[in-house]
Design a protein that fits this description.
334 residues, alpha/beta, Rossmann fold, 2 domains, 10 helices
């Protein structure tokens, strides 16, 4: 089979790889569409020690079951899936917070991922797709679930209902775009997104109908927003988020571009800011996201760009250079 392989920093190549073998409790999938994630780009840049050269990246996918060694799953079924492979036995898994499982592994990290014509995965990870959900839209389930999980978690901490809040999203990549679209669906009218790429700012204004600004040209001011989402997670965006949030407000930290930095602990304490971190999603979030995508909660997704898997090296290079307006590029292996 053809597979896109991470060979060295700033390089992926199309290689011939053996077809996956069918193991007990697993399925072999034909990958129909697979999205390039920010974490794939992080690995591409050589910044993720967990993803080593020789790995097939990719964990956002829509697929069709080819072979099954698990009850309940038959060849021909359309599916997406949870790339996190969890133990199912620990307290977190039993609580439905399987994203926090300490035994978790992940496709596209600890085993070959979805940038290939075929991939194997434990059947416990699968989620059936409705016939009404298009394949490319289904491939956005994973990043859309990240946005849904973060926003739903934040709403527990907001003092006033979400639609009453002024909201700032830092970063207009896939998570920022999907968060903006879901915020609009949830009734947020006063929405601003910070994004350095002018092509993406135009796309955000068109599809999310929000205000945008270039953070290199200035900041959003201080104490202006009840709710701030940091979808970048850099030193600069953490500082911006804490400065921009109103006293008593909520900062949701999703991105993890920089793993450590100082933040304004004085404001966090004296202004009673709620700072939340979030990691991915639960299986329930993924199921809810499939339903949300099917009913159009994230809009028409016309901003998504598709390319054949054979153009994967060029797609990574274009994303690296900021040459595309698309916050999400989806590769199609067939």
């Amino acid at each position: 089979m053809k597979a896109l392989v991470y060979t060295q920093p700033n390089e992926v190549q199309l290689h011939e790889r053996p077809d996956p073998t069918l193991e007990a409790g697993e399925v072999v999938l034909r990958i129909d569409a697979a999205g390039i994630c920010g974490s794939d780009m992080h690995a591409y840049h050589g910044h993720d020690p967990r993803r080593k050269p020789g790995l097939v990246l990719g964990h956002e996918f829509a697929a069709t079951v080819m072979q099954s060694a698990a009850p309940g799953w038959l060849a021909g079924q359309r599916v997406t899936g949870n790339p996190l492979i969890t133990c199912g036995r620990c307290d977190y898994c039993l609580q439905g917070r399987d994203n926090l499982c300490s035994q978790r592994t992940m496709v596209g990290m600890t085993r070959p991922g979805a940038f290939a014509q075929q991939m194997s995965i434990p059947a416990q990870c699968l989620i059936a797709l409705p016939d009404t959900l298009a394949t490319v839209a289904a491939a956005l389930t994973e990043p859309a679930a990240t946005a849904l999980h973060a926003i739903n978690l934040s709403m527990r901490s907001l003092v006033r209902p979400l639609p009453e809040c002024r909201v700032l999203v830092l970063g207009g990549g896939a998570i920022g775009m999907l968060a903006a679209l879901l915020l609009r669906h949830y009734g947020v009218d006063d929405l601003t997104v910070a994004e350095v790429n002018p092509l993406r700012r135009t796309s955000l204004e068109t599809h999310a109908r929000c205000a945008t600004y270039d953070p290199r040209a200035g900041g959003p001011g201080e104490n202006g927003f009840e709710y701030v989402i940091d979808a970048v997670g850099s030193v600069a965006t953490r500082q911006t988020a804490l400065a921009a949030v109103k006293p008593g407000g909520v900062v949701m930290h999703i991105g993890l571009q920089d793993w450590a930095s100082e933040i304004d602990m004085r404001k966090l304490t004296l202004a009673e800011i709620t700072l939340l971190g979030t990691y991915t999603y639960s299986q329930a979030d993924l199921r809810a996201t499939v339903a949300a995508l099917a009913r159009g909660a994230f809009g028409d997704l016309s901003w998504v760009q598709t390319r054949p898997l054979s153009e994967g090296p060029e797609a990574f290079a274009d994303l690296h250079a900021g040459r595309t307006a698309a916050a999400k590029v989806v590769l199609q292996p067939h």
